[in-house]
Each structure stands twice: as C-alpha cells, then as structure tokens.
Design brief:
The structure is a single chain. The chain contains seven helices and no strands. The chain is mainly alpha-helical. Helix 2 packs across helix 6 and helix 6 packs antiparallel against helix 7. It is globular.
Amino acid sequence: GLAVTMGVYAVGTFSGAHLNPAVTVALAMDGGFSWAQVPGYIVCQMLGGIVGGVFVWLMYLPHWKVTEDPAVKLVIFSTAPAIKNYFANFLSEIIGTMALTLGILFIGVNKIADGLNPIIVGSLIIAIGLSLG
C-alpha cells in the first residue's frame, strides 16, 4: 500500500497515476481516459513491471544459488493460492480487481481531499490485500 501511495505521488501529475493496466482500462471504460492512449500506457506499464522484476531478480541473485525450493523463489515475485482451484482463483482475481478499480473510481469522483487521494488508494490496496489476499 505504501509503495502504491508513493508511486501515485511520484507520477500522478504526469500520468494520472495509471500504475496498473486494470486502472487504465477502467478509466477508459468510465470515459475519463482516451481509448487511443490505452495501448501505449499498457505497454509502458508492462515494461515497467519487467524492469522492476529484473531489479528484484538482481537484488536476490545471491540467494537463488542457495535456495533449492522453487516455491520459495516464486514467492519473491508472486503469490500462490493455498488451494489451487482455477475457477475460484480466477474469480478472486476478478473480485479483487473490481474492488480496486471501483474503489479508485469512487475515490476519484470525490474531490474532497485530492492531496490525500494517494493515501486513500494505498489504504484501499492494504484493505483489499488483508481481506481478499
């Protein structure tokens, strides 16, 4: 949540804080963002994720040689369900993404505390992680 908050503060003025393709698509569907810009934003978001992943991989490089369990290595980059059920796991991703995008849209329409919106969005991500994660 704090990382997202800082990311929103860092680039919100320049990009509208489109840190996630789901947010970009939701804002385009809402009419608040041009569909013509969506592909470029998503490409940049994916490239940013890849660059970030490479930095994390480099940071943990010394650990890869001594860590034999692939699941322990994977947890650095992703989460895995306690019970693997493709339908239920996919549905939980849909619900979590819906909660995120609707929450961001709800926060965005209330211009009460614009300077605090990044903190509120970060708190929303923490709440989603704690309740659905």
